[in-house]
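Fig. S4 source data, part A: sequence.
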Amino acid sequence: YARTAAGSVGSEADTAHAADTARLNTGTDGSGQKVCALSDSYDNAGAVTSASEDVQSGDLPGQANPEGRTTSVDVLQDYNGSNPDPTDEGRAMLQLIHDIAPGATLGFHTAFGGIAAFASGIRELADAGCTVIVDDVKYFAEPFYQDGPVSNAVDDVVNNDGVAYFSSAGNSGQNSYEAPFRNSGEPGVINSSSVPHDFNEEGGALPPTDTRQEITIEAGGSVQVVFQWTDPSS
């Protein structure tokens, strides 16, 4: 069930992580730590509430916080683009963090603007004194099978700055396909020498080979597909 450890809005994050029990048993409330988030935006979405209103309600720290937590969120860089539009998900993350660890100082940097901007934001947050960094952003161009700029930035701040870094694992485990290459024995599409993959791993079903892996999309729906090979990324 939802409880309110800080502010006016109840959150299941507190009890789901048993943070309320940890605070009760150990007295730990995040004091002495600076917890920072990377997401899309902080205060640009035109949401139901603004950041200043969240401070006034006690759901975020700041000068007008009614519970005396007056250290404002350290916003290094916000996002106000249009493709995609901002959603202020970063502020929502910080509201949950403030509920779990109300004594911690908070910070934010957008992860939008490209992979290089994402990686730069990680390092900037570490330079700003963040001791814990979390993100919930992925780029389809990030390499699957080796470290890319974002992973290297994470390694940098963890190994050299002692930052504890946590990234959303996502809920896409069933929305993927992985298999060793199976020669379909059918002619290629790209050129005469190419050989299509056989998606029919059973072998005995009809059709005996499947070179298309057909999918069905609902009316008005959309799909994004990313293919990566185990070859080194350029």
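Fig. S4 source data, part B ends here. Strands lie at 34-39, 74-77, 105-110, 132-135, 164-167.
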